[in-house]
Amino acid sequence: MALIVQKYGGTSVGTVDRIEKIAHKIDAFRDKGDDLVVVVSAMSGETNRLLELAEAVHPHVRGRELDVLLSTGEQVTIALLSMALNRLGCPARSYTGSQVHILTDNVFNKARIRTIEQEKIRADIERGCVVVVAGFQGVDEQGNITTLGRGGSDTTAVALAAALKADECQIYTDVEGVYTTDPRVVGEARRLDRITFEEMLEMASLGSKVLQIRSVEFAGKYNVPLRVLSSFVEGPGTLITLEDEHMEDALISGIAFSRDEAQLTITGVPDHPGVAYRIIGAVSDLNVEVDMIVQNVGADDTTDFTFTVHRNDYERSLAGLQTAATELNAREVRGDTKIAKVSLVGVGMRSHAGIASKMFGALGKEGINILMISTSEIKISVIIQEKYLELAVRALHDAFELARHPKDRVDTANP
Amino acid sequence: MALIVQKYGGTSVGTVDRIEKIAHKIDAFRDKGDDLVVVVSAMSGETNRLLELAEAVHPHVRGRELDVLLSTGEQVTIALLSMALNRLGCPARSYTGSQVHILTDNVFNKARIRTIEQEKIRADIERGCVVVVAGFQGVDEQGNITTLGRGGSDTTAVALAAALKADECQIYTDVEGVYTTDPRVVGEARRLDRITFEEMLEMASLGSKVLQIRSVEFAGKYNVPLRVLSSFVEGPGTLITLEDEHMEDALISGIAFSRDEAQLTITGVPDHPGVAYRIIGAVSDLNVEVDMIVQNVGADDTTDFTFTVHRNDYERSLAGLQTAATELNAREVRGDTKIAKVSLVGVGMRSHAGIASKMFGALGKEGINILMISTSEIKISVIIQEKYLELAVRALHDAFELARHPKDRVDTANP
């Protein structure tokens, strides 16, 4: 008999009808004999409704009271789901983050989980109950309500699975799993049976929005097998685990992309030690996160810097950079918001050369110019003009034969 | 410097605009130097919205999960009001019933308060904070969320005032105080400056819906001065206290009435010991509360019984009574739902004869037939045909000169 933690997101519990469907699903699961702990989000739209109320009484409000407000969203769902289960004759008990004592630090609006009390959950499970826990929320040492930030329900589920040493943590979403790339861009995109935590992290941070990054980190850290499945369509989903012998023998697992980038360039900077710090420092002092950074050698003892930031941070960053440019007596500052990032991700590329050249070749064949390149152990990212984004993703998906299972690919040789 | 507990009901916090108005009101109060603990209800409509959701997933649901659901209503309000106060620069902190540890028994949906922890509230008050507490809710010894039943926010406020030994508990509503009778029926109805707990209990239980009965009982028991005021109109409201020398020197304080009654009669019952028990028992076994009971001596060793029940319980009661009638070999069972109850209430009538005869005279002059009479120390109630209700209330209001202040009344003599 396995212990499974399941998490249903806002869309899955978005209406009373859907809550009833999920209750039937859970009841059927119970009949198979597994023990279940279920984590739910607020009904879709509810968090935004609450945020609008908050905006109306106190624009841009943050802090303690916002968490008191937002945490009601999940509390409504746990009650309704437990009622629906009880009506089906399936014993169920709901718990808020505070009741099951999901202890967090005291950083309101984006708290981090420290510990979870298991006592009540274990006792309920032993009595044959389905335990329904509110995602996204916890309580600090002083008893204040905290929330984990958007998407935090995934983290709650993984943290519960880790604490209870569950056999699997299943994240139910509106997609059928993790795909080789976004199926809306590439029709033949293929659902992956398995993917490693590392790859999933790269996919998630590069714009693939299936799972919240922190929950993947957490699952990796505590080695909680994590499965992404659809709430609406039956299927095995995608299992996210440590790398093992069952892994697909692939060089590349998937292609992630993001349109949220903007590029900034400063040219003709004196090539002295400390200059990089002064340039990037000027931007990060504004609380802007810098993503890719490239430095080129320029002419006559000067150098050129290019880096990317989130598109929302572009204007602020440009202003900060211009100030720095004046101080550094740089030649020019320029920027571009019409760019996009495309990345190949795969643990297999660690042991294989030639991935980068094949990638650049495929893009070149389509006439797509590469503006920046950045690589890590399991990923190669390029910045291109935004208008080429779909073309680039399709070209790479074809070139690396991602629509086929790895064992059927032409050039997937064993190392 | 006084410590005041204020309670704002659902209508007073029904919209974001109203919450902001209440915040300004509270902020102005603070500026006068008093310490404030504020209890709020759910925004009007919210509890019904939540009940509809519950009905949709589990019709007629009761018990633990309903309280988890309903308690979110007040939690939203405490957060929004605290945000609004903080925005005005008025420090405020919100607490759910569970956070401030309003310990109740474990009767879900209608729990009773046992104790309240004062520590956090006192500490916040000392730091100059307005403490905002969710009404209507508490927590049992196992940490389960409980609710006090409809109108329970009044009880929360009074219980907090009692625990904190507050100088006054102010209940803000949509009326300007307690009136001599319903101003919608009698245009000249007069706001009372003061009324005793006892009188208020009679007024409340007789259909005057200003305050929840349990909160008045609670205030009387712990001698918490209770003031009813309007959220929307400035004014002193009505103070509900122990009887004292400041009391209006009135025989009659007010006229309460109710249309929710139905009358049942059983005639020709053998006049034996135990018969009353068998008749009333047959009805109360159905969990019906019996209000007025009158027994008349009938002809030839039989007796007639008449009693009233809530109109909603009429059909069930009639069926029960008919069964009892067959067993008792009674002559006849009949009933009437077109009746109403009118009551004179006043602590002054204890020491004055002649109130009843004056009442009956005033009704007789208008041609209103009295169907039943019942009296207590501070109240006389009559049952009349419903169609005469408004006429009767106006006639009595005139006869006892309630529109005038007691010292200006013609026949208000000192005893």
From TrEMBL, chains A, B:
GO CC aspect terms = cytosol
Task: Report the top EC class in one word.
Answer: transferase
Positions with a binding annotation for ATP = K7, Y8, G9, G10, T173, D174, Y179, R184, K209, V210
Keyword set for this entry? Amino-acid biosynthesis, ATP-binding, Kinase, Lysine biosynthesis, Nucleotide-binding, Transferase
Q: Where does substrate bind?
A: T47, E74
Q: Where is the ACT domain?
A: 264-347
Report the InterPro entries cross-referenced here: AceGlu_kinase-like_sf, ACT-like_dom_sf, ACT_Aspartokinase, ACT_dom, AKii-LysC-BS, Asp/Glu/Uridylate_kinase, Asp_kin_monofn, Asp_kinase
Q: Which superkingdom is the protein from?
A: Bacteria
What biological-process GO terms show up in the record? homoserine biosynthetic process; lysine biosynthetic process via diaminopimelate; threonine biosynthetic process
- Gene3D superfamilies found in the cross-reference section: Acetylglutamate kinase-like (3.40.1160.10), VC0802-like (3.30.2130.10)
Q: Which reaction does it catalyse?
A: L-aspartate + ATP = 4-phospho-L-aspartate + ADP
Task: Enumerate the SUPFAM superfamilies for this protein.
Answer: ACT-like, Carbamate kinase-like
**Recorded GO MF terms:** aspartate kinase activity; ATP binding
UniProt lists the family membership as follows: Belongs to the aspartokinase family.
User: What is this protein called in UniProt?
Assistant: Aspartokinase
Q: Which organism is it from?
A: Acidihalobacter ferrooxydans
